[in-house]
Recover the amino acids of this structure.
């Protein structure tokens, strides 16, 4: 029995030795198939250098800081000193650029935004808004606001919460009515804003109405530069019981007696117990408001050179709602940051390039081939360039690198690139 047991142990040992020898040969064979051989010719470096060069882009970013003495969401109007025409906020918020930059901001003491530009195109997001505009009327439904325009693009009436607050709007320049004979009219509607522009031989009159706000931002530009003009805005104010200019000048209207009052300032509000309408001017202006025939005939005289602006705001409650908005913030730009980055768009462009062209541009040997994959941090392949299938029966050169890729807003993520050649 001992001899049999000894022979069985020897057979087991010999079998194990053969099995281990087989495993050794198997892994050597497998390693020759999947382990890259040495890249003596540097062809993998040619692919890496080509990717890094062709995916290169320049992204410019600038901070914009809003210093505010109020809190809450507010429409910000800022000068735009840059020459950029293709740009976006980093968070892709809606905006309007029309000489000034208009955008909505959640204000605090110091609110930071970043504006970015690159070679890629930017589109203002098409979000669901409450602005409905045609050639002759604009609605901001959530605010109960509407304004009617004539065929010249000049506002005529404003209605708020079911009550007409203003009518018979007119403009005169040095006492002459804004000419209607040689006016050009442009009406532009966007998801964020509607713009009504009228131009005569002396004056350009432009008004913006924005989604989410029962207001109108108006801009006046004299076409003859360097000459001072007196422009008077007049209108009939309806359904107002009181007025307020400042802590000294305020009162109630007596519609049984015809009176005229004049004052100076940058703010005046006409209101009743439920709502009202405010006028705000860029510079100190002369206001005149006369009670006659059950309404208030209002005018404000703007004396300026080149350009000026004013705002008309409807509101609920009394003047305290809009008075803090006369000068609620200031805007400051920082320094432009110039960033050289590798872009997703650049990688996409490489992937769409003809294989023969890439090999020529990258000085890649004609007798060899390459492929690569780019994976995200989770290992998922987001780009694959394999114009010729990677062979399974010959030696493969391979290397793995990491690349930081940026989108057009400057957001960067690290990716793994696997380059192969044979």
């Amino acid at each position: 029995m001992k001899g049999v047991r000894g022979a069985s142990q020897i057979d087991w040992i010999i079998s194990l030795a053969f099995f281990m020898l087989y495993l050794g040969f198997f892994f050597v064979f497998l390693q020759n198939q999947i382990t890259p051989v040495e890249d003596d010719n540097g062809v993998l470096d040619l692919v890496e250098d080509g990717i890094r060069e062709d995916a290169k882009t320049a992204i410019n970013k600038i901070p914009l800081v809003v210093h505010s003495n109020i809190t809450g969401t507010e429409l910000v109007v800022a000068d735009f000193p840059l020459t950029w025409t293709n740009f976006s906020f980093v968070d892709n918020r809606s905006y309007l650029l029309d000489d000034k930059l208009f955008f909505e901001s959640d204000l605090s003491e110091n609110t930071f935004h970043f504006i970015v530009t690159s070679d890629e195109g930017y589109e203002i997001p098409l979000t669901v808004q409450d602005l409905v505009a045609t050639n002759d009327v604009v609605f901001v439904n959530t605010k109960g606001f509407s304004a009617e325009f004539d065929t010249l693009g000049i506002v005529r009436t404003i209605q708020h919460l079911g009550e007409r607050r203003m009518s018979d709007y007119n403009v005169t320049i040095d006492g002459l009515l804004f000419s209607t004979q040689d006016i050009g009219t442009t009406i532009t509607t966007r998801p964020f804003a509607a713009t009504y522009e009228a131009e005569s031989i002396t004056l350009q009159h432009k008004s913006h109405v924005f989604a989410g706000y029962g207001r109108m931002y108006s801009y006046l530009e004299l076409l003859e530069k360097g000459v001072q003009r007196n422009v008077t805005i007049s209108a009939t104010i309806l359904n107002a019981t009181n007025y307020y200019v400042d802590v000294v000048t305020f009162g109630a209207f007596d519609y049984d007696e015809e009176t005229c009052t004049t004052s100076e300032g940058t703010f005046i509000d006409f209101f009743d117990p439920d709502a009202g309408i405010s006028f705000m001017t860029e510079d100190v202006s002369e206001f005149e408001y006369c009670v006659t025939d059950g309404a208030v005939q209002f005018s404000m005289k703007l004396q300026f050179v080149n350009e000026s602006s004013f705002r008309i705001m409807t509101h609920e409650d009394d003047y305290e709602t809009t008075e803090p908005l006369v000068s609620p913030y200031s805007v400051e730009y920082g320094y432009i940051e110039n960033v050289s980055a590798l872009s997703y768009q650049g990688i996409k462009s490489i992937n769409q390039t003809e294989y023969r062209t890439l090999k020529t541009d990258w000085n890649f040997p004609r007798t060899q081939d390459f492929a690569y994959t780019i994976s995200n941090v989770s290992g998922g392949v987001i780009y694959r360039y394999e114009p010729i299938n990677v062979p399974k029966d010959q030696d493969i050169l391979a290397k793995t690198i990491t690349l930081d890729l940026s989108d057009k807003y400057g957001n960067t993520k690290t990716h793994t690139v696997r380059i192969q050649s044979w």
Observations:
- Residues 1-7, 26-37 have pLDDT under 50 and may be disordered.
- The chain has four helices and 29 strands.
- The radius of gyration is 35 Å.
